[in-house]
Structure formats: structure tokens, C-alpha cells
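Job type: complex structure
Entries:
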Amino acid sequence: MTRYDLIVVGAGPGGYIAAERAGALGKKVLLIEKDHMGGVCTNKGCIPTKSLLNSAKHYLHAKESARFGVHAEGVSFDIREAHAWKTETIETLRSGISFLMKNNKVDVVAGTAQFIDPHHVKVGETEYEGDYLILAMGSSPVVPPIAGATLPHVLTSDGILEMKTLPKKLVIVGGGVIGIEFASFYSMVGVDVTVIEMMPEILPMMDAEFATLMRREMKGVSFNLGCKVIGITEKDVRFTTAKGDEKSVEADTVLLSIGRRANIAGIEPLHLETDRQGIVVDERMKTNIPTIYAIGDVNGRSQLAHSASRMAEVAVSNIFGTTHQRMRYQAVPWAVYGNPEAAGCGLTEQAAAAEGRKILTATTQMRANGRFLAEQGKRAGGLVKVIADAQTHAILGVHMLGTYSSEIIWGASALIEAELRIKDVKELIFPHPSVAELIRDTVFAIDHTL
Amino acid sequence: MTRYDLIVVGAGPGGYIAAERAGALGKKVLLIEKDHMGGVCTNKGCIPTKSLLNSAKHYLHAKESARFGVHAEGVSFDIREAHAWKTETIETLRSGISFLMKNNKVDVVAGTAQFIDPHHVKVGETEYEGDYLILAMGSSPVVPPIAGATLPHVLTSDGILEMKTLPKKLVIVGGGVIGIEFASFYSMVGVDVTVIEMMPEILPMMDAEFATLMRREMKGVSFNLGCKVIGITEKDVRFTTAKGDEKSVEADTVLLSIGRRANIAGIEPLHLETDRQGIVVDERMKTNIPTIYAIGDVNGRSQLAHSASRMAEVAVSNIFGTTHQRMRYQAVPWAVYGNPEAAGCGLTEQAAAAEGRKILTATTQMRANGRFLAEQGKRAGGLVKVIADAQTHAILGVHMLGTYSSEIIWGASALIEAELRIKDVKELIFPHPSVAELIRDTVFAIDHTL
């Protein structure tokens, strides 16, 4: 039986990073993956959606740039070609990850891990022994117990990414990040899209004001908020409104995007503590069994690819490293890659109010910004909000809606983690013209003194 | 005679920010501008070029997106419409600045300032008195003493921005930021472009490796490096090569972009010390006359719009503020908004070598990044380099070539100013997928320990 310092189960952005980092430290590492390298993120999530959204953005640019002096005729979108480009991207990334594993001397085994006990895992007939175990099995889309939810035209994000034709009428059940990104993509390429969301607003992690503007900017999409789906047929989706009325909307394709659930089937032999989110872990990603760590969606503490990768590093640092890091959640950025883009990091105004925390805040319009105006025009909507502690003036949150948000937001993470204050951000120099400058302008809007 | 707490001369990104900040502090401020609000940046520099580059980017997207599944026929570019959009952008920004001045109770006078003495300025027949003077008159393009430099088809950036037709053969003399942005724009829209640069490489502030890749990625442009222009005729531009050979290249339009010189005509009555860069200032932007400050291109210490704005705040903080700030140059970001984009902040490897400074550094390829791959493909070139102090491990420089660089780079300013070290950046969470993540990956490439 081959013995390893570490066995990692699942090769998504949690698992492969854990394997890479431990391998780089000279440890003998086994990585087990039942499907493709890269997990949901690379194969069925972050990457394919961004590839399709990029195609849709280029389609819009070809179709709607007359104001910029660009004219084109007969602009068409070929969903099969967009999928082919997407597939090429995915395959390149997959082989990149395989190369990374090789480079860090990680053994990779294809197959389903069968847990025997905290130190033994079987794949097929072969048993492996490990001093430590990192569980990174990810999550799967939740299919709600609604009549018609298993009809063939009712898909989750996994299924819709395989669909090589465009729907005519798409209904999306669930207005979270996944639902909104697909709504953006399909509406950009001309599909009639309806979103049905049970909560009073889409994108619950987002500042409420921003979510409202986001909906308003997604002009091709109909939103039904506070509505509960009660049944799906071959032809339509039925739902009750907030007022209790029953309504229906036609659909030839339905996307269910109401959430994802931790993949914890088969972990019973490990005797791990679990809760509604998944495997219970402490701030070092350690489970109740001291040699077992759980990272990413399987612990459900922050269902984001980059959280999973960071948790991987936290786990490896505690097992093999010198730094014994802890996971910090207060500056985890998120992004919605729709049209428009949105991103945020840190505290929202609503969360501050719920905590009774005293804050200073200001919001600015993106249309006051030179680059935004030059590229989007004065009728485009966009917002930036900054939140700071009322006493210390430390930056606690940055929220953005508008172009480039997803690439700008990382710096907010740096501001928050470095505990920079209002006066420190005022002394930072931002490049002009950039949309990013709005963060600085918003900080000055909180306090203009020098 | 009206008395002011502060008279600001020049309403560019230095002057109008100085007026705004001082006005916001409740000071009585006069702003004098001889041309349009916003100065060169808004009217003849940053903004119009970014507007045109955005048009060109949309043109490329319409023309070259078949790989993404986007097809269009008869794609054409109308330079007049692109200029009209540009003009609308500029006018919106100008009125935004006027509104800002009104909002901060700044008096604005149109006309040329005539300096009488350190406390008196005339505009036309009216004389104004000021306790303090902030000089922000900017700079103008240098026209070199070359035969033919004053021919009508030989333009500076001011002139070429007024040109409402596309050249057939454009020769650009000078491969700095301005030259390269125009080269990008014109080559994207199909013009035959040649750049002639006297130095051995373009973009001297850029890491040498990046500048070389930048040239390689600008496929439609011919570069002649180490070449000196000796004469311009109606038909061509003649130059000597590094080896001393004489050559010529055809041109119906020539852009001179060899540099800009401080606008210091008429300052004699102020008895200010000047040097080759412009008006001499200390780190607080103070001149040799204690009540006169000089900011932006007129002091020539950092010819960037955002440097000018920051200098404005430094000056105002020292005159009227409580913080008495100093200008710091070590984390001033810059960006080149070409195709591809490039940006940087802080120390380059070449500068570190010149100073004999011991550094740690690593470079990563953008094509290893998920978003870059999804949007640009595996054959596109892009690089990220991070430079850290060998002893303290503090981040000293970040350099980028590739899409979104201009919007990502602000965070590098935060890293450098907050004196974050390699280990701190490793603990920051970057959103996935984003091109920005490459900064983190590059930091791990310097040191992979945990």
C-alpha cells in the first residue's frame, strides 16, 4: 500500500491548490479526482461561464457600437462556436493543472475516493494510506422538490452548459450569482429571459441599492421577485407572487439555480461532524478529526473558488507549513460577471446596520468618471460605495457596479486587510483615467478634509 | 480688487483639483483658465485618446470575433462618428468640472493669467489679489528643430486629435506613451503605422522585457528603434539607423510625440527658480517663493494627470490643511491604454540594478490565467512581474502587460504604500477568475512557502 504525507480528494480550486502547495513544500501528495482536473470551477462553473459571457460581450460590441463609429451588418451569434472556444479554454486549463501537478511531483489518480478510515482511502481496488487527508469534494446544484423539476428541459448549471442550441424562452429559477450570470449571457445573445426569485431582491450578498440598479440595467430580462415556483410543465413555469396570486410564464428551457449543496456522500467512515452547510471546520480548516481538513464548498463556509484556494493554503500551512494561518472571511471579494459587472468586498451597509455597527459611507455615480463616460456614456448606470468604521476610519467595505468591477475589486481586499484608513486611501495615487479612481473619489466623498 | 485666499492658474487635473479641495475647505478660491476646463487631460490627452481607443477596440471586436462565435459582415469604422462620441465625452466632463467648481464655490475666470507679482495676477484688465498662488499651467508638445517639422501634415497630439479623416501612411516620431497609444489606435483601425524612436527601446519607464513584448504584440506597427529623424518632406520621413545608414519611410501624416515641455512663459515677475523640467519645487510642491506652489506638468516631476491631482492635494494640505503632506513618487502607477494594455507601479528590475538594490523577482505568463485564456486565448502574449526587497520582502514594484492592466494596477499602489510583504500578499484573497490573480501567482512564484 502506497503511503502519502497527504491525500487530497477532489481536484477543484481547493484540492489542486492544496496538492500544489503541499507538493511545493516537498511532501508526498496524492490527488484523487473522479471527473476532470479543475473541478466545477474549471469545467462547469467560473471558466465556461466567463468564456460564454466574453463571446456575448463581443456580440454586443459588434451589434451596438454605432455610437462609437463602428458599423456592421448581419451580426450573428453561433452558440456552437462559442461552446467550442469555451471547450478549448477548459482543455487548456485542465492540462495546465495536470502540468502543475507533475511539476510539484503530485501523484494523480482518476476515480472515486472510497473512505475507509481517516488514514485510508480506496480508489477502485487500490488502497492508499495518508498521514493527513484534505477533503475538497465540492458541491452540486440543488434540485428542489417541485413538480416537474426532473423534466428533460429543466436543467441545472451543469446541464445548460452542455446545451448547444439557444432556448427561445428561458426561465431561470433563482436570482443568485449563477442565475444572474446565465440571465446576462442569454439575454445578451437575444434570448427571452425571465428570472423568478423567492427573496425580495436578487443577489443577496450585494448591497441592496446595487442589486436594484443591476436589475434595471439588465434591460432584456424580466424579474419576478418574492415569487415562489410551484410547478413546471413542458410549456411553462407556474409561481405564486408576493401577494399570493398565481401566475405562469412560458418556457422551453428552465434553469434551476437555487443553490449548491456540499458533496458529503460516503464520508460516514470518517466520523466527521457536519451541519447544514457541510463538514464542520474551524478557522484552520480542521475538522473534528485532527488529521482531516475540509476546504471549499464541501465545508460550505464560502462557496467561491478563490475561497476554496485560500482555504487550501490555510490547511496546508497548518499541516506542513511554518506559518499556521487562519482563514479570514472579512475581505473575501466576489464578482458577478454579467452585463453590467458587479463586485464587492467586505461589509455592506445592510450588514453593518444588522450588527448595529457605526459606519461612515458614501456612494458615487460611475458616470462622473472619465473612463466610464468615454466607454459607456452618460446614460449608463454604475455605482461605487465605500464603507468605513465611524471610529477608526478603517475601510470595511467596497462595492461596485459597472464595467471592470471584477478586476478592480482585488485592491479593496488589500485596503481592508492592510487596515488602511480613509486618510491613507486619500494619499494613494490611482491611475487616470481609470474606473478604479472612483474608489478614491468615494473616499473623498466620505471626508474631503486634507 | 477682489482678494482671494488662493489663486489657481490652469484648470487641468492639477489646477481644478487644487481649486476643488481648497474650496471644499471653505477657502475663497479663484481658478483661471485660458482654454477649456479640464486642461490637456480632458480635452487633448487622456480622455479623447481613451475614447478613440475604445472605439477602435469595439471595431476589432466586431471584425475579429469569429473564434468566439460572433460573425459580422461589412464592418466599417467611421472616424467622424468616433470623434463625435469623443467630443460628447469631453463636453460632459467639462461641464462636470464646472459644476464641481460651482459646488465648491470656486470663482472661475476665462482668460490668460498675467503675473504681476507673487500676490497679484491680471486677466485682461482685471487684477486679482491672492494670499497664495498655485501654478498649474501644464505643458505643451515639443516640436524638434528638424527640417520639415512645421509642414502642415506634421502634427503634434493636439493636431492629430482634430483630424477627422484617417491617414493612409502615418509615421510617429517618438515611442513614448503618447506615440504608442496613437500607434495602437491607428493600426487597430487599419492605418499603416511606423514608429521611429531614438532610444534602443520604446516606453522607457517600462520594464525592458515588457516593452519588447509590447512591440511584438502590436502586429500592425513597424518599429525603427535607435533611429534619428533627420528630415521630413511632403512625402516621407528620413532617418538614420543605429548603424548610421540613411533610410526613409513614406508618410502622408506625421505625428511628433517626442515629449512635452512645461508652460512657463510669463512667470518672470514671480522670480521663480526653474530647471530643465520646469518650476523647481520641494516635496510639498512649494517653490522658492513661500506663498507659491507649482503642480503637475509645470514642475515636470511626473508628467501624469494623476500625479498632478495628487500634487494639488499635497499643495493644498500644506497651505490650508491640517496634515501637511509630502508628495511620494515611489508608487505612482502608469498605464498605456494600447492594444495590449500595459501598466506598472514602483521599481523596475532595471532601476533596481542601476541602484545596486538587492531584489527578489518573478515573472509569470498571462496565458496561465483562466480569465485571460477565456478572453484572449493561448496564443496571446501577456506578462506580470513582481519585485520585492530581498531583505524586508516588501513589494516594491508590479508590472503588467495585457488586458485590464490599467484597472488592476491601482491595487499595486496600495500594496507598495502599505508596505505589504510577500507573505502578506499571499494571505490576500483575489477574485477568481480575474487577470488580477496573476499578481498573487507571481508572488507565489517568488516564494512558494507557507
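Summary: Chain A has a mean pLDDT of 97. Chain A touches chain B through 104 residues (CB under 8 Å).
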